[in-house]
Design a protein that fits this description.
Layout (H helix, E strand, L loop, with lengths): L8 E7 L4 H17 L3 E7 L8 H13 L3 H9 L2 H7 L1 H10 L4 H10 L3 H13 L7 E4 L2 E4 L7 H14 L1
Parallel strand pairs: 1-2
Antiparallel strand pairs: 1-3, 3-4
């Protein structure tokens, strides 16, 4: 029997793609990815807020990007353009797909036929059930960390929990 590597620690990042706070959180997400590599499974979870009218479409587009194998690059690219998304709407989502070399027509179709709506709805329902009220919110090791008001010290706290869980 070979020693299989310990399964990665899961970090759920409840996020919405028209949220400036989620854009600010990207540096933390990148730093965590760099520090832990595949020992930390960083999962994007959708929590579109009603005040951002393109957030729900953006969440669906992120699912299409995941389908096409480029979830995080897409999410990061859209978050770099939250203001433009607010002004130009769904056209930005298709533009970003095109710029990343994804099948932009498929994005367009996915937004029209709503094929990813159920995933987004399920994430949102689960988020509400566990007390997510704003974004970004992190869940790791059963602990919820709310970054919507302040992200001060959150990365250190996530690292502390991850290190403890990985030490197991």
């Amino acid at each position: 029997m070979s020693d299989s590597p310990a399964s990665p620690v899961v970090l759920d990042v409840w996020c919405e793609l028209q949220c400036p706070d989620c854009h600010a959180a990207l540096d933390d997400v990148r730093a965590l990815r760099e520090r832990y590599g595949d020992r930390l499974d960083i999962r994007l979870r959708h929590f579109p807020l009603e005040k951002h009218k393109h957030a729900f479409a953006a969440a669906q587009a992120a699912e299409e990007a995941a389908e096409q194998g480029r979830a995080w690059p897409y999410v990061e690219a859209v978050l770099e353009r939250t203001a433009e998304l607010g002004q130009r709407g769904e056209a930005v989502l298709v533009d970003v797909a095109r710029e990343l070399g994804l099948d932009a027509e498929e994005f367009d179709t996915a937004l029209i036929d709503g094929r990813h709506i159920l995933i987004v709805d399920a994430d949102q329902a689960e988020g509400k059930a566990i007390g997510v009220t704003g974004t970004p919110t992190y869940v790791i090791g059963g602990e919820r960390l709310d970054g919507g008001k302040s992200q001060e010290g959150l990365r250190a706290r996530i690292e502390e929990i991850a290190d403890r869980l990985l030490a197991g």
